[in-house]
Design a protein that fits this description.
The chain is of the alpha+beta class. The protein is 51% helix and 18% strand. It is built from 9 helices and 11 strands. The two termini are 30 Å apart.
Length: 405
């Protein structure tokens, strides 16, 4: 898993005036002291031999915890000469427009790509077409074309080694089908409720579609299909409430309505509550967007291709997984983790669904490998990042299960 910290960077200074050595200082949002770099290797020819200043006018997030303040390691690819398509609309609108066949406006721009391999944090990438870059007047030395080829070949080694280690170890450990089995009564009950609800909603959707009903018929069809399902499964008819239970139910409804009204008044006065986005949700979401962007920018998928196309399946499943993770992990900043047993079953269901979609994405990558779709470097990097997200999901599943044990 790469550390992608372009949104955190405020400014940076890189020094390659000594051949074979890159040093530097990087300032990040909400961090007083800069992160220091001490790397072996050289940038590409456009930046080799220079003192480089980088400025980000719109930093938007803090540096994730766990990132070491002194980075020692090896240079990957460092260049400002790569050309990328930059949408003239939001990235979400650009992807959605291309998905439905619209021609979306864009322009070409140079993109800074700053990559290194840290002894403590592994692969680190800072990539953006929006930074301002300043170079000193003349390089103190120059990198020849043949030297740059050697440098690029050397840079492929760390990526492949990291891929081999993570995919071999993590895919086997975290993507085993046996991990799907429920480990507690609460989890089994949550799985059963989810399966029942999915079946019920499928039947409701099929009736609305087949009978060509309006959306406002949903409630009626829902209760009809729910009653049919109860009878088909031989479940007893719900017993009517006793008079006292009916009174208590009405009181409970009144109390809930009062609480809801108070919440609405509070929101109108102070604005909506602030919800936190879990780092893994954001990581998975951005991964899905990068996968979509690479596919569209490189025209690897023909316009109008089905969603079952392996490359579409890869990117779509990662995006859907991010939505399932959001349902499980996003919430109020005061929420506790792991969740209490009352909510743990629902959280587990969503986490396991996210894991299943990530498995489907990896299956799409297997098909892409067999059909030699896209390019090997993209497939390899996509696989390592998807497996890394899946590993984190599995770790969260274990934490929730431990609270139920």
């Amino acid at each position: 898993m790469a550390w992608r910290i372009d949104e955190c960077l405020v400014r940076a200074e890189l020094d390659n005036r000594v051949r074979g050595r890159v040093t530097g200082r990087l300032w990040f949002l909400n961090l007083e002291e800069p992160v220091t770099l001490e790397l072996t290797g050289n940038p590409w020819r456009d930046l080799a031999g220079h003192f480089i200043t980088i400025i980000n006018d719109t930093p938007s997030s803090a540096l994730p915890s766990g990132f070491r303040r002194h980075q020692v390691g090896t240079v990957g690819d460092i260049t400002a000469s790569q050309k990328v398509k930059v949408p003239d609309v939001s990235l979400d609108d650009f992807i959605e427009g291309r998905r439905v066949g619209m021609e979306m406006p864009f322009h070409w721009a140079n993109c800074l790509y700053l990559e290194w391999y840290s002894k403590d944090n592994g692969r680190v990438v800072i990539e953006s077409p929006d930074y301002r870059i300043q170079l000193d007047d003349l390089p103190t030395w120059t990198l020849t074309e043949s030297e740059e080829r050697v440098q690029r070949e050397a840079n492929r080694g760390p990526t492949q080694g990291l891929l081999d280690q993570m995919v071999d170890a993590l895919a086997t450990k975290y993507l085993d089908d046996s991990a799907d089995e429920s480990t507690s009564e609460i989890e089994a009950e949550a799985d059963a409720k989810d399966a029942r609800m999915n079946l019920l909603l499928d039947r409701v959707e099929a009736r609305i579609r087949n009978e060509k009903l309006d959306a406002d018929e949903f409630d009626r069809v829902y209760w009809e299909e729910r009653e049919k399902l109860r009878k088909e499964w031989g479940e007893p008819e719900p017993e009517p409430l006793a008079p006292m239970e009916e009174v208590e139910r009405e009181q409970w409804i009144d109390e809930m309505n009062e609480i809801a009204q108070e919440a609405i008044k509070e929101m109108e006065k102070n604005g909506p509550p602030e919800f936190t986005t879990h780092p893994l949700v954001e990581e998975c979401r951005k991964l899905g967007l990068r996968l979509h962007r690479a596919m569209r920018d490189n025209n690897w998928v023909a316009e109008g291709a089905s969603q079952e196309h392996p490359l579409n399946e890869i990117a779509d499943c990662v995006q859907i997984a991010s939505g399932k993770l959001a349902g499980a992990l996003n919430g109020d900043e005061d929420d506790v983790w792991p969740p209490p047993p009352l909510f743990a079953g629902n959280v587990l269901v969503r986490l396991k669904k996210a894991r299943n979609y990530l498995r489907d994405a990896l299956a799409g990558l297997d098909a892409a490998d067999e059909q030699r779709l896209a390019v090997p470097e993209w497939r390899s990097q996509a696989r390592i990042e998807i497996v890394a997200v899946a590993a984190q999901v599995e770790a969260l599943i274990k934490e929730v299960r431990d609270t139920l044990a």
